[in-house]
Amino acid sequence: QVQLVESGGGLVQAGGSLRLSCAASGRTFSSYAMGWFRQAPGKEREFVTAISWSGLSTYYTEFVKGRFTISRDNAKNTVYLQMNSLKPDDTAVYYCVTYPVSYYNHVLTPDYWGQGTQVTVSS
């Protein structure tokens, strides 16, 4: 059974940084694309970023480009989300996901989700 466990969320002031981690188990982690979604209060869940199986290809939604960086360590079965220059609008629950393929494609739906970690950015 695939498990995704996020950590690293918390409260930070605007302009600050946080690093989220997602530890994966239950499948050959290095074979699959991974990603992050988020859901703010009262809003729909939205795509944030994704990374290919090798880590060589990354994808970002427009509102985080230049501020967020996704990376992965296949030896540790872990994917990371470095978030810099955080804004109050970044406040949300952040979810780690896996995709059933090696390369991300925007038409794909994730096949597994973590439980989420709360990120709160104060102004």
Measured distance between first and last alpha carbons: 40 Å
The major pleated sheet works out as: 7 strands, mixed
Uncertain segments are none
SSE topology string: EEEEEEEEEEE
| Shape estimate | globular
- For this structure, the quaternary state is single chain
| Helix count from the secondary structure assignment | 0
Structural class: mainly beta
Radius of gyration: 13 Å
The overall pLDDT average reads: 96
Task: Find the count of extended strands (DSSP E, 2+ residues).
Answer: 11
Question: Helix share of residues?
Answer: under 10%
How much of the sequence lies in strands comes to: over 45%
Layout: helices, strands, pairs:
Blueprint lengths: L2 E5 L2 E4 L4 E8 L8 E6 L6 E6 L6 E3 L7 E6 L4 E6 L8 E7 L13 E2 L3 E6 L1
Parallel strand pairs: 2-11
Antiparallel strand pairs: 1-3, 3-8, 4-5, 4-9, 5-6, 7-8, 9-10, 9-11
What does this structure look like?
The chain is mainly beta and 123 residues long. The protein has no helices and eleven strands. The strands form two sheets. Strands 2, 4, 5, 6, 9, 10 and 11 form a seven-stranded mixed β-sheet that branches. A four-stranded antiparallel β-sheet has the order 1-3-8-7, with no helix packed on it.
Concise structural overview:
With 123 residues, the chain is mainly beta. The chain is 0% helix and 48% strand. The model has no long low-confidence stretch (mean pLDDT 96).
